[in-house]
Structure formats: C-alpha cells, structure tokens
Amino acid sequence: MKSSDPGARLEHWRQAVDNYLAGLFASGGTPPTLQEAMRYSVQAGGKRLRPLLAMATAETLGHPGEKLLPVAAALELVHTYSLIHDDLPAMDDSDLRRGKPTCHRVYGEALAILAGDALLTLAFELLAGYGLQENCPERALQIALELARAAGRDGMVGGQVLDLEAEGKAVGLEELETIDRLKTGALLQAAVRCGAIAAGASREQLQALSDYAFRLGLAFQITDDLLDLEGDAAEMGKATGADQARGKATFPALLGKEAARRRADSLYREALEALEMLGQPAELLLELARRLVFRSK
Fold it and tell me: Do residues 92 and 105 touch, judged by C-beta distance below 8 A?
C-alpha cells in the first residue's frame, strides 16, 4: 500500500507490525507459559513508535519500509522487555501497563523476568534472520550493534541505573538530560539509525537523522514527565503521579511545568530543523515527531 497521507501510511505500517508480532507467537516452540507471558506483553497494545521510526526513516531514504519488519519487530521486542522489567516491584512496582495488569501481576515475578529475557534474545534472533533473508549480513551486523549499544550499559540499562540512583536526590539539568538521553532517548535514536543503516544512509544523512532523533528523544521524555503529572490515567492506561511519589528526577520538577513545556517545544523545532539537512522531503518523520511530542498518552 502506498499513500500520500503520512498518517494513513503510518497506520498501515502499525497494523503490519502488529500482524508480524502476532505471527511470532502463533505456534509453539517454547514452554506454553513463557509463550503466553511473552505474547501477553507484546500484544497488550502500544503506539509502536520505535518500529515506525525505523520504517519511516528507511522509506524517507528510498528504501521500502515494509522490508524492515523484522528490524521493526526487534525494536519493539526490546522496548517491551524493558517495560516488563521496569514494572517489577524492584523497579517501578507498577500494577498497570497499557490499561492492563502488568506482566508480573498476571504471571508472577519469576516468569515476568524470564519473559523479558526471552523477548530480548528473540530480538537479536530476528536481526540475524533479517541479515540472511535480505542477503545483507554486514548491514544486519551494524543494526545489531546499534541496538545492543542502545539497549545496554551505555544506553537504556545504564540510564535506568542512573535514574534509580537519582531517586530522592537533587539533580541538575545536565545530569537529568544524561539520564533521559540514555534511558529513553537511546532506543528512539537507535530506531532511526537502524532504519538509516538499512537504507544505506550516507554519513551526512546519518548525522542529520541522529540529531533529529536526539532532540526528539528529549522532547518525548519531557512530554512523558508532563503526562505523569497532568495526564488522564484511564486514557494513558497506567497510573499517574508515580514519578513524584518515588521522588524521581523529572523536567517539570526541575524547571516547572511551563518551562518544561517550552523546552519540549524548542527541542521539537530543533528536531524538524535537523531534518532539513537531509535536503529531501521527510513527511513521515515530521508526522512522527508531532505524534511523539504532542500526544495525550
């Protein structure tokens, strides 16, 4: 399906990602309880922003977005694994995720941990299969390296540790931006970079897209912080006020709500300016930036 409407194109891809993910759990091959816990968390819903960023980036550079479904799915599996572990009692101790009971509330802590582990490893299985299927082993290796770095000690996991260590402490703006750049922004940036690598981006294109994703990741986190204060819990599908209750460092707590909102808007504009460096239309990435920053859930 081709459409001149970015929103329709993104919705088509979101459904394609959902169908691809469902297919991963359509047959056996793992213990049934593990399979069920993995399926439950992956199919609980979600905006599929990271898969869409990868597919939109590739298509912007002239590479069909549909060819990136294994890569897109791998990004979503890593994201879902992180949510399962984030929700555990030792971490954020959350009861709801995407409007449903969290994985450990349904299946117990041990199985939830193992389901997260299995999703993480399945992601890299998909990337290896992508390299063989598309006959692009070198690009698949680059994509796997990109995702591993973004998800590990120098990315998401490292950011989560810094976030835990900052609870209840006075944190400056630079430290807070470092936490959020790693905890949230690294995987968003990886999604864009993976799409760019798959499309054979030039060094200049990769830099422009990285700048776009870096600013978008920070704006996304500021919006997330604001929604935790002001969002509707029923619409968001999870409890609000959790960050404040746990003494977490957030942009509204540090800057105030209005200044935080202005900062998100400024980062959004900078992200759009970075796209101008591509020297070509990027309607899909523009639409995704709008969705990420000006969302209500």
Answer: no
pLDDT in tens, 200-246: 999 999 999 999 999 999 999 999 999 988 866 655 555 556 666 66
SS3 50: helix
- What is the pLDDT of the chain when averaged over all its residues? 92
Q: Could you tell me which CATH class the domain 6-293 is placed in?
A: mainly alpha
Q: Alpha-carbon torsion 16, 37, 152, 137, what sign?
A: negative
Q: Are 68 and 198 in contact (CB under 8 A)?
A: yes
Fill in the amino acid letter for 71.
V
Residue 92 pairs in a beta bridge with: none
Contacts of 171 (CB under 8 A, 6+ apart): 179, 249, 254
CB neighbours of 69 closer than 8 A, spacing ≥ 6? 16, 17, 20, 55
The domain segmentation of the chain, as residue ranges, is 6-293
pTM of the model: 0.93
Which residues lie closer than 8 Å to 239 by C-beta, 6 or more apart? Answer: 94, 95, 96, 233
How sure is the predictor about 1, in pLDDT bands with cuts at 50, 70 and 90? very low
User: Contact at 8 Å (CB) between 156 and 82?
Assistant: yes
